[in-house]
Predict the structure of ABC transporter ATP-binding protein.
Amino acid sequence: MKFIFSYLKKYQKLVAAVMIIKLMGTLGELMLPYVLEHLVDEVVPTRSIRQVFLWGGVMILLAVLVRQLNVGANRLSVRVAKESIFEIRRDLFWKSINLSGNKLDGFGLPSLNSRMTSDSYNVQSFIQSFQSLGIRAPIMLIGGIVITLTMDVGLASILCILAPIMIVVVVFVSMKGIPLYDKVQQSIDHIVRIMRENITGIRVVKALSKEDYGTRRFGGANHQMAEKEIKAGVVMALPGPLMTLILNIGLTIVVIIGAVQVNNGVTKPGVILAFLTYFNMILMGVMALNRVFMLMSKANASASRIAAVVGTADDMVPLSDKEAFHTKRNEYIIFEHVNFSYGDESDVKEDKDKSPKEVSSEWFDGMNRQKCLEDIDFSMKKGASLGIIGATGCGKTTIINLLMRFYDADEGRIFIDGKDVRTYDKDELHQMFGVVFQNDVIFADSLKENISFGRDVSMQEIEGAAANAKAKGFIEEYEDSYDHRAVVHGANLSGGQRQRVLIARALAANPQILILDDSSSALDYKTDAALRKAIREHHKSATTIIVAQRISSIMSLDDIIVLDEGRIIGHGTHQELMANCEMYREIYKTQMGEQAV
Ligand SMILES: Nc1ncnc2c1ncn2[C@@H]1O[C@H](COP(=O)(O)OP(=O)(O)OP(=O)(O)O)[C@@H](O)[C@H]1O
């Protein structure tokens, strides 16, 4: 809750205005039965039509005023809720896209997704309802009791006994509800993950006729979520009927005692009429209180999940010169005896019984760590080119991840241009790179925007990059050329076209370091060779690293590293590796044919 209120601080005045207007509206509402009682008991017996119309008019005016006040307060409360959730989402998004690789792995994309959507929605609903119901409910409850006390102490004492019982029930049940809603939100993460996997991999699912399998997986997760929702819903739905029962019993007692009193001339009929209305109002107040507590339970669980991300400490802050490593070597990129392991998030994900807060603080500490890179040691001169080859999962991409400081090495030192990579400001560092990752993303936007990608890049540079990436030809065949729109994930482009647009994106800003991670696998050999030639000719000064499975993509580069299970087992030019590296020779033989050796 502290997290939510920290965002409401700036709207203090608006929230206060909502509450004051709501207070006035509720007081007006409370006056209505009182006026009704006066009309029935005092005005009607005078048989004065004028007076009846006058007090009837007062009631109508009061009702209209109450309505207007409620509408005004609701509008303001919606505004506060919308603006504060806008800020919460903005901060959550900003933090999410700036999370370090380790923390991103820890939270998981599906979970970040549901924090951005369903969790934010829960918080928004609470902010909105707490401003109006938060004041209306207690005022109706307390006001109703106070007014009935002034009318008939005996009858009102029935309410005085029932109200605290109802409040205790609501509070008790809400306390039980909070942890249950935590679990519901965790199931939403799970469901979002399965949805993402199935939607992203829809083609594979269809191609292998695995719709049933996908549906079964989703069905399992859906079932789990439904169970948790039902459990939370059953608990939170308990107070409603219980309260109606308690109040109806109270109402029956009031009607019976009231009837006797009216019969004996002790009480007037208008009082009983007013009592019945106040009873209803009190019931509505308690129900509203129940709703506020229910929304609060959900929002509390959701807010701590959002706060866990927003409040996570930035672990990739640039190091000061004092803390950093230094080198006298003058190569442009240097890896010195680097070791690295990813944290294993599976042990965290299983810990479903812990609150998100507890989990998030532990995620990044005691994770199982498998060694991924061991004693990686190489360097590159400025403008040089390096190929990295090796079996899948041997750690090729991880080297890039460390170079771009998505993760920090466990041991060893990495330098770019004579500076410890950890001393660079994140933006400064990333602006040095033009990069295409494996399965990189094409956005649902024009091809022009996909290439320029929000950078200050002229149309001439876009066209130049497209030409070097061998994308110019197919782009200019479209009637709308560079304005042609790609759909989500570039599904209206072929694999090779997607890769060429991505390479154009990497080349567009004339990067100092160019990284192509398995980014030409969908290109035919001829286009791949033409692409490398264009890069050599037009991006001479760029220090280039090409990660590839295809030996033909890297054999002409200045230097090649052969990786095996996270270790460098071969390093040199193509000729040197052919002479000295058994695995390289094997890859060459397999891909280029026996006689090529
Ligand atoms: N975010 C991550 N969290 C945990 N383990 C990871 C993560 N990313 C990669 N790994 C593991 O690290 C190892 C190296 O992965 P990496 O992506 O560097 O391999 P790669 O050589 O690029 O593979 P490929 O050629 O298939 O792309 C693999 O065993 C992989 O499962």
About this structure: The longest strand covers residues 368-380. Residues 2-179+235-310 form a domain with the ABC transporter transmembrane region fold fold (CATH 1.20.1560.10). Strands lie at 333-344, 368-380, 385-390, 411-416, 419-420, 433-436, 513-517, 543-547, 559-564, 567-572.
